[in-house]
Amino acid sequence: EKGRGIGRRAGFQNHFEPGIYVCAKCGYELFSSHAKYAHSTPWPAFTETIHADSVAKRAEHNRPQALKVSCGRCGNGLGHEFLNDGPKPGQSRF
Ligand SMILES: [Zn+2]
Asked: Locate the MsrB domain: which residues (predicted)?
């Protein structure tokens, strides 16, 4: 299997229920397809998480415009939140 694009790199995967993306390790709900939008990068982009505690964020001193994002339940690494890089001013891109 060649990892059909979505999510493998970022640590989450498509849920069995349409439109919900969950942690690849523990299955915690992370993102909704409602918050998904087209972006030039090859992996899915979202503006917000499903639950306030869906992800844990940690600042990286060498990247002031990005936060390291991990699963809020199990700590699985998910990638980054890019501040002010969403479709509208002030929104984030996950
Ligand atoms: Zn998890």
From this structure: 1-94
Q: Mind listing the pLDDT tens digit for each residue in 30-79?
A: 999 889 888 887 778 999 999 999 999 999 989 999 999 999 999 999 99
Report if pTM > 0.70.
yes
**Which residues are in the CB-under-5-Å shell of ion ligand 1?**
23, 25-26, 28, 71, 73-74, 76
Dihedrals φ, ψ of 6, to 5°? -70, 120
Assess if residue 3 is contained within a domain. Answer: no
Q: Give a yes or no: residue 4 inside a domain.
A: no
Six token digits for residue 53: 């505690």
Ligand 1: distance of its center to the CA of 1 in Å? 23
Q: Please give the distance, rounded to the nearest whole angstrom, from the Cα atom of residue 78 to the centre of ligand 1.
A: 9
Assign residue 43 the CATH number of its domain.
2.170.150.20
